[in-house]
Design goal:
There is one protein chain. By secondary structure, the chain is mainly α. Helices cover 79% and strands 1% of the residues. The protein has one domain. The protein has a two-stranded antiparallel sheet. The two termini are 15 Å apart.
Length: 346
């Protein structure tokens, strides 16, 4: 780990520690025994169902990557499943620095360039963001959140959420237009951005040009309307399955029986936002965001919110780690070494 990553990790750790301190100080008296008792009463079958749903997501992700690769290499989803699982294990255990493990392994095994697979990864992230935005907008516009205690007490907050939904829809449309422009004029657009940014920072200008070109190249993996529809459908299916996994975990607690699928979409989005502040193998931001939403929006007691937040993190982030570590061991891979190699090559 280089000096920059150490400083970033320390900064994130300090922010998370401060947030945790203020959170527990606000609660004043937190009953750890009650939290553990509620967790022990959680329905194990629902938790296992949540894990099974999350595991199925990795196959769907491999299938989507197979479609992305189809114009250059016909690789079966089964051959992409191992790198996908190992990659997400690296993300869970190493944090954001582990994100390049998956495109790096796929590039190395299929004889492709890392830049081409980072381009695929970039486009994949855009489809994921678009799918989540569509689900959140659908939930907000349907009025499914209006009955929650928080929004009943604060109609203004619901109005702000509606405005956010409109912004997300506008963002998806703007992203689609940008994608079209990048695909048709990626090289000239990258050169223009580099020229504008070079006086400020030549290094930043070069990095932006590289990323814009990679993005344009990644879009070339969607070579026809059928592929676009397949990738869009898979992206929506992936996040629908993740939402169902959230539903299973929350409903493992009998006290959260009133949480609906629409409600878990809000939990899912808050978890994604919180994951920006994550420590390797520890998490932090994701759990805190879920806990805060459960407590503030759904009027859940602190002990139940903490227990559910931790279980959701374990099921949706960490459950893949044992399988990924076994696969990495069988292939004689060191996650830390692969992560370092991927960043050096990038």
């Amino acid at each position: 780990m280089n000096r920059t990553r150490i400083l970033v990790t320390l900064a994130v750790g300090a922010v998370l520690a401060l947030l945790v301190y203020f959170q527990f100080r606000a609660w004043k008296e937190f009953d750890w025994a009650l939290m553990l008792a509620q967790a022990r009463r959680a329905d194990p079958l629902r938790l296992l169902a949540g894990v099974a749903l999350i595991y199925s997501v990795y196959f769907l992700r491999a299938l989507r990557w197979h479609i992305f690769l189809r114009p250059v290499r016909d690789v079966s989803p089964r051959r992409l499943l191992g790198p996908t699982i190992i990659g997400f294990t690296g993300l869970a255990l190493l944090g954001r620095p582990g994100e390049l493990i998956r495109p790096y392994l796929i590039a190395r095994r299929q004889g492709l360039t890392l830049s081409s697979q980072i381009a695929v990864w970039t486009v994949e992230r855009i489809f994921d963001g678009g799918a989540v935005a569509v689900f959140l907008a659908g939930v907000v516009f349907s009025g499914a959140l209006a009955s929650t205690p928080f929004f009943q007490r604060s109609p203004a907050a619901l109005q702000h959420l509606n405005q956010l939904a409109y912004l997300l829809v506008a963002g998806v449309l703007a992203g689609a237009l940008l994608a079209v422009a990048a695909r048709r004029h990626g090289t000239s657009l990258a050169a223009a951005l580099e020229k504008r940014l070079a006086p400020l920072s030549p290094r930043l200008a070069h990095h932006v040009r590289h990323r814009v070109q990679a993005f344009g190249e990644g879009l070339n993996t969607i070579h026809d309307l059928t592929s676009f529809l397949q990738v869009t459908g898979l992206s929506l299916l992936i996040w629908a399955v993740i939402a169902l996994a959230y539903f299973q975990v929350t409903h493992a607690y009998s006290e959260l029986a009133e949480i609906t699928v629409a409600h878990v979409v809000l939990l899912m989005v808050s978890s994604m936002a919180g994951s920006i502040l994550q420590l390797p193998a520890v998490g932090g931001g994701s759990q805190l965001a879920i806990i805060k939403v459960l407590e503030a929006v759904f009027a859940v007691k602190p002990e139940l919110a903490v227990g559910c937040g931790i279980l959701l993190w374990l099921v949706t982030f960490m459950a893949i780690a044992p399988v990924g570590l076994v696969l990495a061991h069988r292939e004689h891979l060191s996650l830390r070494k692969v992560e370092e190699e991927s960043h050096v090559e990038d």
